[in-house]
Design brief:
- The structure is a single chain.
- By secondary structure, the protein is mainly beta.
- Helices cover 0% and strands 48% of the residues.
- It has a single domain, classed as Beta Barrel (Elongation Factor Tu (Ef-tu), domain 3), CATH 2.40.30.
- Strand 4 and strand 5 form a beta hairpin.
- 9% of the residues are buried.
Length: 64
């Protein structure tokens, strides 16, 4: 697990989250605060400060 900022919306600021690396190159993202309008197919971009660590397509959304 590691902490990073994750941006899921164009023109939004990266939001703090905990990321857990799973099998098959997948990552679970758990935001510190609830996020609205997350949808499968949307992009998620992971940041460490201003540096882009990676990104990918959102596959599923789980409500906590």
């Amino acid at each position: 697990c590691f902490r990073a900022g994750v941006m899921i919306r164009y023109n939004a600021l990266p939001q703090p989250a905990v990321l857990t690396v799973l099998a098959q190159g997948r990552v679970r993202i758990e935001f510190d605060q609830p996020q609205r309008a997350i949808a499968p197919g949307q992009a998620a971009v992971v940041y460490a400060g201003e540096e882009v660590l990676g990104g990918g397509k959102i596959l599923t959304r789980v409500l906590a």
